[in-house]
Write a sequence for this structure.
């Protein structure tokens, strides 16, 4: 079929009507507008595909693309629709969709654990506008290579999040490579970064440190409560009087790292005395409030230990407690792990093992408190 029958001058002079340029390309002029369309036969049916109000040159380029698509046995209209979807579903947009779908499962709707941070800081600035269907292992390798050995934990989290986003895209029906992150890891190789665990005091040295916390200040009391209960920083900082009933402190799920419901913490006599000393500082129900608003910051206790020229940090007291349980008691593994709110066994095991061993933990935490205060009960000294 002859092509390129029309000229720009002719098009300008044409009145209303339809004019063929050949090869299935037509111009439709009506009123003050002029629209191009492409007519073709596929599977015995005639189709017309609008090409828009573009120049003659651009219309011919679009028609040529349509003919190439037809030569491959595909429908130009459907191919264009898929291409439009591909351009619409960028890595950034699918990341947002994946996060929205998952955030109900995440602590604090994903904000508390900053689920998006590894991607928003290190990946999306470079790949966010790229259609997710175009992203392959080389793109991922290139964007994460600067972090892979120097900031291995951040790179690992970013890789993990990327894998989840790509799997979400596959569930949406997009044409993505679900093995892209696995291939990228192979290209990057094994990280040489060595994970540095939080420094901790040997359990034999904890009593001396505890005894040094002799001032009835919010920071000292918060550290004592942290050591006595074996909890992480967040539950301590957000501890409220209405969470405590008798000798049991019920930590709400929102303040826990794991998301398996609220967690009961047995309180030793020493821990109850700490609560009594902290109660006068209570504001809006919080035992350890900030001097201005809210609760003490995540860095308050760490900065205190840093000022004392200590390399250890508050989180390390969980290791101190766990080592004491292993070396100085006959606590069953399941009970010791539950004290630190660690998951035990497989998901099947967890489904059947529903005890939180509260009574056994009460005995052990009372023994831990007696060990900590073996050099004297400082609470009695400061409460006189």
């Amino acid at each position: 079929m002859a092509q390129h029958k029309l000229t720009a001058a002719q098009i300008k002079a044409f009145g209303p009507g339809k004019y063929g340029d050949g090869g299935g390309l037509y111009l439709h002029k009506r009123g003050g507008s002029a629209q191009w369309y492409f007519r073709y036969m596929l599977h015995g049916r005639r189709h017309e595909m609008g090409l828009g109000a573009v120049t003659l040159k651009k219309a011919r380029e679009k028609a040529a693309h349509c003919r190439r698509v037809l030569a491959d046995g595909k429908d130009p209209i459907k191919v264009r629709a898929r291409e439009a979807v591909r351009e619409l579903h960028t890595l950034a947009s699918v990341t947002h969709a994946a996060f929205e779908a998952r955030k109900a499962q995440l602590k604090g709707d994903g904000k508390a654990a900053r689920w998006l941070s590894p991607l928003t800081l290190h990946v999306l600035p470079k790949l966010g506008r790229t259609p997710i269907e175009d992203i392959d292992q080389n793109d991922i390798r290139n964007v994460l290579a600067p972090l892979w050995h120097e900031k291995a934990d951040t790179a690992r989290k970013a890789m993990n999040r990327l894998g989840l986003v790509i799997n979400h895209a596959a569930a949406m029906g997009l044409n993505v490579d679900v093995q892209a992150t696995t291939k990228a890891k192979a290209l990057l190789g094994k990280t040489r970064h060595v994970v540095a665990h939080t420094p901790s005091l040997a359990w034999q040295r904890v009593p001396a440190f505890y005894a040094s916390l002799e001032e009835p200040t919010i920071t000292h009391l918060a550290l004592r409560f942290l050591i006595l209960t074996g909890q992480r920083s967040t539950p301590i900082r957000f501890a409220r009087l209405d969470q405590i009933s008798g000798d049991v402190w019920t930590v709400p799920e929102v303040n826990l790292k794991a998301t398996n419901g609220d967690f009961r913490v047995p309180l030793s006599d020493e821990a109850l005395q700490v609560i009594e000393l902290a109660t006068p500082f209570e504001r809006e129900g919080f035992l350890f409030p900030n001097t201005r608003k809210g609760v003490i910051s995540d860095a308050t206790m760490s900065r205190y230990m840093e000022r004392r020229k200590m390399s250890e940090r508050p989180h390390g007291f969980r290791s101190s407690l766990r080592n004491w349980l292993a070396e100085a008691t006959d606590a069953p593994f399941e009970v010791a792990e539950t004290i630190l709110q660690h998951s035990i066994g497989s998901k099947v095991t967890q489904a059947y093992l529903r005890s939180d061993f509260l009574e056994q933990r009460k005995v052990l935490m009372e023994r831990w408190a007696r060990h900590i205060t073996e050099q004297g009960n400082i609470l009695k000294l400061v409460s006189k």
Remarks:
- Residues 375-384 have pLDDT under 50 and may be disordered.
